[in-house]
Amino acid sequence: MEEREIEKIYRSYRRRLKDTPLSFTRFLYEKINWNDRLIGIKGARGVGKTTLMLQYIKRNWEQTDCALYVSLDNLWFSNHSLDDLVEYHYTHGGTHLFLDEIHRYPYWQTMLKNLNDDYPDLHIAYTGSSMLEIDLQQGDLSRRQMVYQLVGLSFREFLEFECGLKIRAYSLEELLQDHVAIASNITEQVKILPLFEKYLRTGYYPFYKNTCEGYDFRLQEVVRQVIESDLPAVEDIQYVTIQKVKKMLMILAERVPHTPKMSELYKELETNREQGLKMLYALERGGLLSLLTTQVKNYKSLSRPDKIYLDNPNLMYALSPNIDIGTLRETFFFNQLNITHELLLPQRGDFYVDRHYLFEVGGRTKTFEQIKDISNSFLAVDGTEIGHHNRIPLWIFGLLY
């Protein structure tokens, strides 16, 4: 490949690198073992996967061409080969390759396997949709790579991103035992409740800082791209099904938290049970819905969820015509704990966490009436800065990651 043909890729890469900020990095940055030869970073659209990779490059190779970042949705690949690009980069001293939007590339798993085999001293990191599933029959990547999951900003990260307040992540056990001391220390430094309200509305996706107006519109566009672009890239799906997935999401957005009568939903969508469940779980994998069940989910045998939420509070504001405050609180709690803990729907209360802790989520006047006499039961209470005993501020559950 001639140098003039590839220079466009390098120019685009250098511009992206120049504009990448280093003042704030996501929680996952320090958890990744960047020395591994093959690293995958999955996550919903808009959570900051690209920035994470560019920050690592900028901190280590800003002044050299040892590393190369390229997005595989670049039109350059419509008449150029990734193989030729990698060969050029490698033969010109390249040691690290960062591939964005991997799901855009045909047979991406086989491609990664071949690169891993053909360039044994080349380090590769890639990002892809949270919908990606590693197919053990195609390339057998499971033994070759480390895969990480990036989600949206926690409330803890938002506090640092928004106002520079650095707080370490706490375990759930630490929060339950020491929440009074933790809350007292934080509320001495900031007015926590207005910041929590801002986070619920616009703080989950890092791009909120670059969106002065129209954040909800930008988020609606993210949703559209997930369904119209990411889903067809990872699933063999027809146009009519894409339209049904959109309709399903909007129906559920109007009704969350939805205790589904699935037969009625299937009839409304003019689909059957099997197809309906596939669409539902695709929306969950795409970071748009969260499905709560009474038993641990088995993704090999899809079953009806017992309760359906939008994935995070920001999506509620962008998609739901009316915001129910009770649903908003439950959505926040589910979203913040779901990344590191197992949540099930209990017979009493709102959430059964790790099959050990029972939580009821509510406002300042919430009482223990519904979960009284149950051991290891707690209230997650909105509208309060500091709690007392088993009555814990809702916002503090945003400090888990």
Task: Give a topology summary.
Layout: H1 3-18, E1 38-43, H2 49-61, E2 67-71, H3 82-91, E3 96-100, H4 108-118, E4 123-129, E5 146-150, H5 155-163, H6 172-187, H7 192-202, H8 215-234, H9 239-255, H10 262-269, H11 273-285, E6 289-292, E7 307-310, H12 313-319, H13 325-338, E8 343-344, E9 351-353, E10 357-362, E11 377-381, E12 391-393
Parallel strand pairs: 1-4, 1-5, 2-3, 3-4, 10-11, 11-12
Antiparallel strand pairs: 6-7, 8-9, 9-10
Q: How large is the radius of gyration?
A: 22 Å
Distance between the termini: 45 Å
Low-confidence stretches: none
Strand content: 5-15%
**What form results from the Cα inertia axes?**
globular
- Give the mean pLDDT: 93
Question: Order of SSEs, N→C?
Answer: HEHEHEHEEHHHHHHHEEHHEEEEE
Task: Enumerate the strands of the largest sheet in spatial order, edge to edge or round the barrel.
Answer: 2-3-4-1-5
What report would you give on this structure?
The protein is an alpha/beta fold. The chain is 41% helix and 14% strand. It contains 13 helices and 12 strands. The strands form 3 sheets. Strands 2-3-4-1-5 form a 5-stranded parallel sheet. Strands 8-9-10-11-12 form a 5-stranded mixed sheet. A hairpin with a 6-residue loop joins β8 and β9. α7 packs across α12 and α8 packs across α12. The longest helix is centred in the middle third of the chain and has 20 residues. It starts with a helix and ends in an 8-residue tail after the last strand. The mean pLDDT is 93.
What does this entry show, briefly?
The protein has 401 residues and is of the alpha/beta class. The protein is built from 13 helices and 12 strands.
